[in-house]
Design goal:
Strand order of the largest sheet of chain B: 2-1-5-4-3
Strand content of chain B: 25-35%
CATH topology of the domain at 412-596 in chain A: Leucine-rich Repeat Variant
CATH architecture of the domain at 412-596 in chain A: Alpha Horseshoe
GO cellular component, one term (chain B): cytoplasm
Helix content of chain A: 55-70%
Radius of gyration of chain B: 15 Å
CATH topology of chain B: Beta-Lactamase
Structural class of chain B: alpha+beta
Strand content of chain A: 5-15%
Largest interface: A-B, 67 and 48 residues
Shape of chain A: extended
Largest sheet of chain B: 5 strands, antiparallel
Structural class of chain A: alpha+beta
Number of strands of chain B: 7
Oligomer: heterodimer
Keywords (chain B): Membrane, Protein transport, Transport
CATH class of chain B: Alpha Beta
Largest sheet of chain A: 5 strands, antiparallel
Radius of gyration of chain A: 35 Å
Number of helices of chain A: 36
InterPro entries (chain B): AP_complex_ssu (IPR016635), AP_mu_sigma_su (IPR022775), Longin-like_dom_sf (IPR011012)
Number of domains of chain B: 1
CATH architecture of chain B: 2-Layer Sandwich
Distance between the termini of chain B: 35 Å
Shape of chain B: globular
Protein name (chain B): AP complex subunit sigma
Family (chain B): Belongs to the adaptor complexes small subunit family.
Strand order of the largest sheet of chain A: 4-5-6-9-8
Distance between the termini of chain A: 93 Å
Number of strands of chain A: 11
């Protein structure tokens, strides 16, 4: 007799494990037990098999691997006694799952057990099948289960019903077979069978629409009658919970009625009476009653409109909201979010209570209330609501601040009635919670500020004041530094005072002080320091008297360990010392940044960020270590030339700063995405615009192209800018902004400015025996460095080309941006063409002409073909 | 799918019973249990019984030293699940007589049987205590 035979009973093993004081001891005990069990398995020990399995289940629950016990389960299932079978099936369900191959071996045992004479064994088999069967098993055993739906014993019937649910989920084709038996189940009296029957019908209706029709026609009256019976039934000790008979059945019936009534007016009419009865008569003092009322309200909201019922429902919700129990309030907030869609007015009435909930001490309630407030905001109430939210921002705790800030910012942006209010609110938010504000938000703020030219003076003074008080908020410091740099003279001379302002006296050296503080204090932040350096440079041009002091400050950074700062300080120093004559031209006031472009890019980047955040691993492939480095990239490019020849005015700095900053690392929080995405103008600068951004199934090619897109404007290196082409039918449904509308199918791309810029001849860029590519050029007025190229591909062969992909590469001084092609199938013999737009920015415009290497890949007759070439014959002055 | 999983955890965070209705690997399970338990144990009495975690909701209730956690889909009726938890406890109480944590630990398989009678494939099957306990009592008599 093996000395290690499992003599220990389950109880003793549990005691031993509980007695262990450390994890290592526990592991040792478990190891010993597992060894004993394994030995017993090897010996095929009959007597203690089920005890071993019980031990295995306990060990599995603790989290240790137990796969060696799987065959034991099978042997136990195959044995004749009921207790053994019981444990065997339990082990099967806990230790195995549908992906295991071993499961197939059980199919035969299951089949025998389904036909067993003992109803409990049949029940066991149904249970196991219902919990873990795979698609093949479902197919094999479906006829058995169908038969069992009409078994004499109600216990078996109810289990068969739930088992059928799993079968039709796994194999939707079989759903038709179950429609009839399922509807007959609905006429049962036994509660267990009723509940499961209702559940089966619900799932049937979800899976197959003809089942939905059938159930709607035949069963609604029956269901309503059943619900009425239960609601009116006298006290029954079996099913009574808190004075209500079987609330679970109530709720299930209400759910099924909801599915049936949705979208169908007749069905909804049948239900009106019973819904009214349930809504008014149910006691709401106990949780069970409230649960029923909750379900009832949900059903009323989802079915077709009936004014009286809706009013009733919203009243119930109002009562819930003022209930003291947190659970009920949470549930009410949840429901109100759905109710807004239906009846916004009624929900507005409860605004005050909801605002109170935002300040509640319970985190779940706060979150829900905040989302609800976000949905409630419209033009009329945005000001008071924002005021309240900002007040709360000051007292809220850290984890909540992030959410709250994001919501406030997006609210302010969407609904701000006038610019000055927008700037005020943003300043408040920045001073309170600047660290939580995302980059895009303060970029947008800068864009708005630059556009509001009459408010420049006011803004810079307000920022200056705010800056004095709260210097630890990063974003505030950055915006303040930028504004002081730009509009420093307005600050000093009190230009453009509005009536509401108090006069403040700021001398030139004060402004320099402020920027100096920014540099000195925030020792770690690269972006802030970099921005401060530029601001200092601008100030030196505006206030020549402070030049010396500014020079000293800049020079201090000459030996900084961060490359960016070092480079900047050396170059700026150079400008200050040697190039005084061009300094003022260099540092003129920036041109107004184009809001439409910016918001378009932002909407595109929002989609990019969303789809890149679903494809997380690709996020950081852009090789940009910190998002803060992004705005630097273009500055590097521009100042990498000899410092004596700055090739563009200061205006381009911020344009690229902002345009470039589509930082992939700003992954917006999950909850705030869906509401924003729908309402933003879907400008597909980047190719994601057509598919719904939140789809996690966005193809890998989209994610790849989006991250490549980020690369194109950012990486000024010899990047291979490629875009996988979209399927032809996915043309953009969004309203196109003329300048950005690029996916106009096969039609001509509207180029608004082509009549304004100089006309360039179109160019046959590439021609081979099978393919021709033509370029049409245009330029926008005012932006001589950027060229819009429309590429047209024509198929010169008699075969159709599929999976057409165009890729291009440019040298360092050029930047290339590719938009998605109109389609990726090129019909034969020139019967159609593909168009694709490119944007090229030439930083050496006038000195060097464009040059491009291209590569075209496509499939012809299922063979891959690759064509490459170089285009050297661009017009000279593009 | 309704119910995704049912857990019973004591105040020190040790799992006493775990029933999953969707497949998760062992590491995932442990990670999940750890996170959720930490969240629930940290909450006070005043806070509501629902916690949102990833893409589902957790409904929990504390009975003496044991926490009952049920993870459900987002569209499930939370108040009904609270009732269900209470029903579960009452059923176990009727069977074991003044049930406590140790009872569940030492008769783990009975607790599982009871749970199986009540929930199948993520949906509630039976809500009558008598019906639930009959097969279990029969089995006790048989063995």
């Amino acid at each position: 007799m093996n000395p290690f035979s499992s003599g220990t009973r389950l109880r003793d093993m549990i005691r031993a494990i509980r007695a262990c004081k450390t994890a290592a001891e526990e592991r040792a005990v478990v190891r010993k037990e597992c060894a004993a069990i394994r030995a017993a398995i090897n010996e095929n020990d009959q007597d203690y098999r089920h005890r071993n399995l019980a031990k295995l289940m306990f060990i599995h629950m603790l989290g240790y691997p137990t796969h060696f016990g799987q065959m034991e389960c099978l042997k136990l299932i195959a044995s004749a006694g009921f207790p053994e079978k019981r444990i065997g099936y339990l082990g099967l369900m806990l230790l195995l799952d549908e992906r295991q191959e071993v499961l197939m071996l059980v199919t035969n045992s299951l089949k025998q057990d389904l036909n067993h004479s003992n109803q409990y064994i049949v029940g066991l088999a149904l249970c196991a099948l219902g919990n873990i069967c795979s698609a093949e098993m479902a197919r094999d055993l479906a006829p058995e289960v169908e038969r069992l739906l009409q078994f004499r014993d109600p216990n078996v019937r109810k289990k068969a019903a739930l088992c059928s649910i799993r079968i039709i989920k796994k194999v939707p084709d079989l759903a038709e077979n179950f429609i009839n038996p399922a509807s007959s189940l609905l006429k049962e009296k036994h509660h267990g069978v009723l509940i499961t029957g209702v559940q089966l019908c619900m799932d049937l209706c979800k899976v197959s629409s003809e089942a939905l029709e059938y159930v709607r026609k035949k069963c609604i009256e029956g269901l309503v009658k059943t619900l009425r019976d239960i609601a009116n039934s006298p006290y029954s000790p079996e099913y009574d919970i808190a004075g209500i008979t079987d609330p679970f059945l109530h709720i299930r019936l209400l759910k099924l009625l909801r599915i049936l009534g949705q979208g169908d007016a007749d069905a909804s009419d049948c239900m009106n009476d019973i819904l009214a009865q349930v809504a008014t008569k149910t006691e709401s003092k106990k949780n069970a009653g409230n649960a029923i009322l909750y379900e009832c309200v949900e059903t009323i909201m989802s079915i077709e409109d009936n004014g009286g019922l809706r009013v009733l429902a919203i009243n119930i919700l109002g009562r819930f909201l003022s209930n003291r129990d947190n659970n009920i309030r949470y549930v009410a907030l949840n429901m109100l979010m759905k109710a807004i869609v239906v009846d916004a007015q009624a929900v507005q009435r409860h605004r005050a209570t909801i605002l109170e909930c935002v300040k509640d001490s319970d985190a779940s309630i706060r979150k829900r209330a905040l989302e609800l407030v976000y949905l409630l905001v419209n033009e009329s109430n945005v000001k008071p609501l924002t005021k309240e939210l900002i007040e709360y921002l000051e007292v809220s705790d850290q984890e909540f601040k992030g959410d709250l800030t994001a919501k406030i910012c997006s609210l302010v942006e969407k609904f701000s009635p006038e610019k000055i209010w927008y700037i005020d609110q943003m300043l408040k938010v920045l001073s309170e919670a600047g660290n939580f504000v995302k980059d895009e938000v303060w970029h947008a703020l800068i864009v708005v500020i630059s556009n509001a030219s009459d408010l420049h003076g006011y803004t810079v003074r307000a920022l200056y004041r705010a800056f004095q008080t709260s210097t630890e908020q990063e974003s505030l410091v950055r915006v303040a530094v930028w504004c002081i740099g730009e509009y420093g003279d307005m600050l000093v001379n009190n230009v453009g005072m509005l009536d509401i302002e108090e006069p403040i006296t700021v001398t030139e050296s004060d402004t320099v002080d402020a920027v100096e503080v920014a540099i000195k204090r925030h020792t770690l932040d690269l972006t802030t320091k970099a921005m401060a350096l530029i601001a200092l440079l601008k100030l030196s041009s505006r206030f020549p008297s402070c030049s010396e002091r500014i020079k000293d400050i800049i020079v201090q950074n000459k030996r900084s360990l961060m490359l960016e700062l070092q480079q900047r300080s050396i170059e700026f120093n150079c400008i200050l010392q040697k190039h005084q004559n061009i300094r003022s031209a260099l540092l003129e006031r920036m041109p107004v940044l184009d809001e439409a472009t910016f918001s378009g890019r932002r909407a595109g980047s929002l989609h990019t960020a969303i789809s890149t955040s679903t494809g997380a691993p690709h996020n950081l492939q852009n090789g940009i270590a910190k998002p803060a480095a992004a705005p630097i990239a273009d500055l590097l490019d521009l100042s990498s030339d000899d410092a004596a020849a700055p090739s563009s005015s200061g205006g381009d700095f911020l344009m690229d700063l902002l345009g470039v900053d589509l930082s992939p690392a700003s992954a917006p929080s999950g909850t705030s995405q869906p509401p924003k995405a729908g309402t933003d103008v879907l400008l597909d600068l980047l190719s994601i615009g057509t598919s719904p951004p939140a789809q996690s199934s966005s193809s890998a090619s989209d994610i790849l192209s989006s991250s490549q897109d980020n690369k194109a404007p950012l990486a000024n290196l010899n990047g291979l800018a490629s875009l996988s082409s979209l399927p032809a039918n996915a043309t953009s449904p969004a309203s196109p902004v003329p300048m950005m509308d690029l996916l106009d199918g096969l039609g001509p791309i509207p180029q608004k400015h082509e009549e304004n810029g100089p006309a360039y001849p179109s160019l046959v860029a590439y021609e081979s025996s099978s393919l021709r590519m033509t370029f049409n050029f245009s330029k926008q007025p005012g932006n001589p460095q950027m060229t819009l190229i429309q590429a047209t591909f024509t198929n010169l062969s008699p075969n159709v080309y599929n999976d057409f992909l165009f890729q291009a590469a440019v040298p360092k001084f050029l930047q290339l941006h590719l938009d998605p092609a109109s389609s990726n199938t090129l019909p034969a013999s020139g019967n159609g063409s593909i168009t694709q737009n490119l944007k090229v920015t030439n930083s050496q415009q006038g000195k060097k002409s464009l040059v491009m290497r291209i590569r075209i890949a496509y499939k012809m007759n299922n063979k891959d073909v690759l064509e490459e070439g170089q285009i050297n014959n661009f017009p000279r002055d593009l | 799918m309704g119910i995704r999983f049912i857990l019973m955890v004591n105040k020190q965070g040790q799992t006493r019973l775990a029933q999953y209705y969707e497949w998760l690997t062992l590491e995932e399970r442990r990670a999940l249990e750890g996170e959720i338990v930490r969240k629930c144990l940290a909450r006070t009495e005043q806070q509501c019984s629902f916690v949102e975690h990833r893409n589902y909701k957790i409904v929990y209730r504390r009975y003496a030293s044991l926490f009952f956690l049920v993870g459900v889909d987002n569209d499930e009726n939370e108040l009904a699940i609270l009732e269900f938890i209470h029903l579960l406890v009452e059923t176990m109480d009727r069977h074991f007589g003044n049930v406590c944590e140790l009872d569940i630990m030492f008769h783990l398989e009975k607790a599982h049987f009871m749970l199986e009678e009540m929930v199948m494939n993520g949906s509630v099957v039976e809500t009558s205590k008598a019906n639930i306990l009959t097969p279990i009592q029969l089995m006790d008599k048989a063995s």
